[in-house]
Design a protein that fits this description.
This protein is of the alpha/beta class. Helix content is 30%, strand content 20%. The strands form two sheets. The protein has a five-stranded mixed beta sheet with strand order 1-6-4-5-2. A two-stranded parallel ribbon has the order 3-7. Strand 4 and strand 5 form a beta hairpin. Helix 2 packs parallel to helix 3. The longest helix is centred in the N-terminal third of the chain and has 17 residues. It starts with a helix and ends in a 12-residue tail after the last strand.
Length: 138
């Protein structure tokens, strides 16, 4: 099973790497890395992350109801340009091997400037508790 999962991940990563900017593809949730060091608990439109998290966890919304995560392939890894959405997906009970739709972008100057992860995208820090709900830390 581990070998098959690794092979599937490799194939999906290669497909995304070959995609043109603006096209869509699928990758496993576990393959998407955070591009930034930290996130706020509210989306740009002011909605708390906890609302989407609860909607996904309860089944009120599915991944198809949410715009695809924008990603960029850098150094052979898939990095998110939508870190709050990625955090929400990962913390709403979705299996890490679930395939999720992504919108492929390019590594332009704006993306490179925002690439602040000190952990190669494996973790992200929450800036405060506002918007995350429940006060839990993860």
């Amino acid at each position: 099973r581990e070998g098959a999962l690794a092979a599937a991940e490799l194939l999906l990563r290669r497909k995304v790497a070959k995609c043109r900017e603006g096209s869509t593809a699928e990758v496993m949730l576990r393959q998407i890395r955070y591009s930034q060091e930290s996130i706020k608990g509210v989306f740009m439109d002011g909605r708390p992350i906890s609302v989407m998290r609860q909607e996904l966890a309860s089944g009120k919304k599915s991944i198809e109801d949410i715009p695809p995560i924008s990603v960029v392939v850098t150094n052979g890894q898939v990095y998110s340009a939508d870190n709050r959405r990625l955090w929400t997906f990962r913390h709403s009970g979705m299996p890490l091997d679930m395939r999720v739709p992504v919108a492929v972008g390019n590594s332009n100057a704006a993306f490179v400037r925002k690439m602040t992860t000190p952990t190669a995208g494996l973790t992200i820090r929450r800036r405060g508790d506002e918007g995350f709900g429940g006060g839990e830390h993860s």
